[in-house]
Amino acid sequence: xxxxLLCAAILIYASTSFADNLRGDFNxxxxxxxQLMEEKLWNKSxxxxxxxxxxxNTNANVNYKLGYCFLQTSxxxxxxxxxxxxxxxxxxxxxxxxxxxxxxxxxxEAYYYLGRAYHISYELDDAIATYNELLTLISxxxxxxxATERQLEMCNxxxxxxxxxxxxxxxxxxxxxxxxxxxxxxxxxxxxxxxxYTSRRMRIDSxxxxxxxxxxxEWKEDIYVSYKDATGNWQEPELLNIxxxxxxxxISVSPDGQTLFIYYDEDGNGQIYQSVLIGETWSQxxxxxxxxxxxxxETHASLSPDGKTLYFVSDREGGFGGRDIYxxxxxxxxxxxKALNVGATINTEYEEDAVFISADGKTLYFGSTGxxxxxxxxxxxxxxxxxENWSKPENIGYPLNTVDxxxxxxxxxxxxxxxxxxxxxEGYGLKDIYMxxxxxxxxxxxxxxxxxFIIAAPGExxxxxxxxxxxxxxxxxxxxxxxxxxxGAYVAVLPPCSGYHIEYVVEQDxxxxxxxxxxxxxxxxxxxxxxxxxxxxxxxxxxxxxPIVEEPTPDPVVVEHPDTGFDPANPVNVTxxxxxxxxxxxxxxxxxxWSLAEDKFAExxxxxxxxxDAKGKVNLKVESSASNVPSSRFENNQKLTEHRNKTARDQxxxxxxxxxxxxxxxxxxxxPTELVQGPKYANDAIKKSKYEPFQYIKVWxxxx
Length: 704
Hints:
- The chain is α+β, with helices and mostly antiparallel strands.
- It is 23% helix and 28% strand.
């Protein structure tokens, strides 16, 4: 009997000691997981809560903590629902101690997070019912009362948006761009040939093997670029040379794709940097100056197409609440002005982020948890009116917006497409980058985009001193654009209501020029131009020391013209009484295009219209000429002069037809004269004055 009692005592002691050890382990892990939650290390905390859940899955507090942590992650929110449901279906308490390991009940706040879990799972009626139940359990002074009312508003908006889906076609950019890691934050050059984005993938050289995020275990953020080839396919992404061992993320890119805005987070204080493409290397990122970066949190920036306005996001004091959108303007000294909040029409008491300004500078896209969001951040747009005020923001709609956070949205130049990142079942990994076609968008873009390539001569590289000058004929403003070193691609924005003089310059020589008119009422258009450079020896360089013997210059070709009685040295002459008019336009090498943007041509056409109105009808004769300098754009110079003549006749017809005049009745275009003339080419294209007199368009108008 004594032996039996002794054994029983030993068993009881052992069981008690084991239980005490288990309890001690539980308490220690509970406190450790709580500490990780305090530090917002959600994934590390989840590992411990899952361990505790495996030993006691009926503990409502453990279920609550586990569900809450899942809800805070970026990729695993949907896992929260069963745990929060289990926590809220057991008895909840209003006397909850989050730090007490012996607490087995969930707090009343569990209903709020259960409602949120239902919400992001599109179980909207259950979410609404859960939120309403919570409102009966807490007072209006409770810290979640107003937030719960806000969640109910978003649930009802989600039901409304889901019942009226927009006609969006969403396409994955494919395995060249995306892989099994997180790929997100896409920004593109205006011509959509360069895609910059953030990825958490293993680098191809494995140099980031040990550079991981402590909480998630993912590799830290790097910036990549993928270029589109001539057939429109994305190529293997390249790691930018500005990445480090820290996080680096894309924010936005300038329209020409040669200035990149980057987000760096140092000690929790997010800052905005910029890097410039020099040749094929990105410069050391520099902190944006002036009033842009501050001691607060700056998360995003977007540059207007003219480079004069920078929109950015900051949670600095003095805003409307949380993060707001601000703007700075470029001062005459090339510095940024003080920051100005864009106002209460855009900013709310909630959070705004990820601002983008459209290519025409008239539409602002941004993410917001305010306005009529259907859950978390939604993407909105606002249009700048003629009164310089922003319109009431519009929700871009479902299925692009969802019940979860939708923040990053990068529009194309015509605003008929956009790029964003999303996690979808059919994707290649976690978040992938997608293109969205938006055929029914109500937004109109009234600008022209000049884009194309400057192509070096065979066997040669693009000269370093190569650029495009765009002069706005209305205000005289000159903007310089540089082609991309790797492939000669360039892009320029041409706002409406002006004509533009385009000059292609190589080593200070204008090798080609053209005139483009963008009317006030024009729709979005793309002007594709390829400029082929001559071989070096045709540009007067690389010549041998042996002197070149020039052949005698032949007499110029004489062609009979109507006797206008005007001096050909004057580019425009119009005399209504004599019913005659004359126009003359000279070209530089290989140029063939011109347009109504030229003031002198517009003056000539006004004279032609006046003659028609006064005399009833007019005859128009067009003479074109090309020199004997070899053409790099056309098969031969005969094709060049034909192109010039046709361009002129098309411009004349368009101007008269648009004004209501009828060909054959009000005007007649007589048989064209297309010439190739001037001295024989002697490998001395640098001597422009010798050849340019034979590169022209001349137009005569008369009733004879």
